[in-house]
């Protein structure tokens, strides 16, 4: 089967790497891809948002399955367009993608399904939001309701900072129309985990747990980023907590989507805060997490095309997911300055040496190839991922590989996976 993968980040390199291992694959196309995906298939110079051109390409090249990586094309109806043309497409419809693309919709649905989440109010007028935030004397979290590339959330310990954030989003429109409405939430305390599941409309197949590291600085300090590293499994998600999340979050939201006449197919990603009072939902995403996908897929032994087809066909009960029991750790190497301003075009060396280390894979994210050199081309540049017999060994291998790689201004957190290592020492 010919497969077209849409996207160009670290997540897409990990997906392409895994898809290329499938016995069901004839030809893999990636649009637009990056120099990493070019090692797994053929990059096609079509923008991931240009559904019309992608469809044309898919028809001409006998694509049997399209896999949509990022949220934007999902929210603008890429899967609907492929399905209407008779091509199987992995991911939710535009209506179902509102679970991520419209945080106000997600909040209301969670409420109607009695899913445990932070208390929150939805506002579409700044004056009302300001009055509400000013009436509170504890920390607030301000969220742009629409898609803001992971940057639309402000955790504010002072209500006055919350008002400033609401003003930037609603009045200055720093995220454009994505900030027409905001959600104002209570701040939750605890440890975060990412729970990803394959969903075929009825059946839910939960993957191994993982944990992201959102803030740029060590010890979870500084502004939020797309994610500075991840590991899988996350020991904070015990079997009991995983069962609770499945029962109290995933099953009710999939049922709720069916009742809403927006059946859910694709990846359902629940961002969870494990509080003293149990797991609570921070957000839903409608696609694989980045960088969580890198360590998760490194551990997945099953054929990814078979699983994706089962999701499209509504036959998830027929597949089995087999996991490597060894943990995996992904350390993101970023451009100096990220998530603020940063320079591009810095030559990267040492990737091949890094990959000579056992069980290490370097996933490209923001890279480009210019005259034979691999150069930086984004904030998050590489996801250096390693497996090990234990979480400490996986971390050691990942950082050993990081040390082999150089580019001007390279930055990474040094404490990826430390929370898991501390937990494994206690247990
Ligand atoms: P979201 O995109 O909604 O997951 O938010 C991005 C990040 O902001 C999360 O991963 C958390 O670190 C933080 N966050 C979001 N909502 C809350 C909340 N209610 N309480 C505490 N932190 C939050
Ligand atoms: N790693 C967080 C996300 O993919 O949204």
Q: What does this 3D model show about the protein?
A:
It is a single chain. This protein is of the alpha+beta class and 427 residues long. The protein has 4 domains: 90 residues, 3-Layer(aba) Sandwich (Rossmann fold), CATH 3.40.50; 56 residues, Dna Ligase, domain 1; 128 residues, D-amino Acid Aminotransferase, Chain A, domain 1, CATH 3.30.470.20; 99 residues, Phosphoribosylglycinamide synthetase, C-terminal domain (Glycinamide Ribonucleotide Synthetase, Chain A, domain 4). The chain contains 14 helices and 22 strands. Helix 1 packs parallel to helix 10 and helix 7 packs antiparallel against helix 8. The chain starts with a strand and ends with a helix. The model has no long low-confidence stretch (mean pLDDT 96). The chain binds adenosine monophosphate and glycine. Adenosine monophosphate (AMP) binds next to strand 7, strand 8 and strand 17.
CATH topology of the largest domain: D-amino Acid Aminotransferase, Chain A, domain 1
For the largest beta-sheet, the strand count, sense and barrel status come to: 5 strands, parallel
Tally the helices: what do you get? 14
CATH architecture of the largest domain: 2-Layer Sandwich
What do the pLDDT scores average to? 96
Report the CATH superfamily of the largest domain: ATP-grasp fold, B domain
Radius of gyration: 21 Å
Q: Number of folding domains?
A: 4
CATH class of the largest domain: Alpha Beta
Helical content class: 25-40%
Class by alpha and beta content = alpha+beta
Kindly report how far apart the N and C termini lie: 46 Å
Could you list the spans in which at least 5 consecutive residues all have pLDDT below 50? none
**Strand-residue fraction?**
25-35%
How are strands sequenced across the largest beta sheet? 3-2-1-4-5
